[in-house]
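Progress report, Aim 2. The chain analyzed during this reporting quarter is listed below.
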Amino acid sequence: MIKLTFCLRRRPDLSAEEFHRYWRDEHGPLIQTRAAALGIRKYQQVHTVDAPDLHRALQARNGGSPTPFDGIAEVWVEDLATFRVGDGTPRARQAARDLLEDEAKFIDLANSPMWLGEEIVFYDASGAVARLPETRD
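Predicted structure tokens for the chain:
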């Protein structure tokens, strides 16, 4: 399983409230309607908690780290081939265009890094056992 991690910063013209409302109430449902075409197995949003004093303390702990992101989107797909083409149809290409167009409405895309990775779980309180991926050469 491959996970896209997308660290979101809101567009400068949006308040935090506007950003979170749009992401949750508009973009989330749009993902739901496009997920099958894109081969998305799971999508979740992690919204930054409104706790500026705690965030400043965490940044100070790290010697002045950057300000927190407004949130993180996590998208799981089966493999890299699926990530590249979804289900391979014109519908998948249109779905990808639709999502990018919508993201530009609320995300500062140029300042929102994203990357692909594989999860390695070392602890899960639910009792799941860690399973390391195969070593790559």
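The two ends are 19 Å apart (CA to CA). The domain at 2-117 is CATH 3.30.70.100 (Alpha-Beta Plaits). These observations will guide the mutagenesis work planned for the next reporting period.
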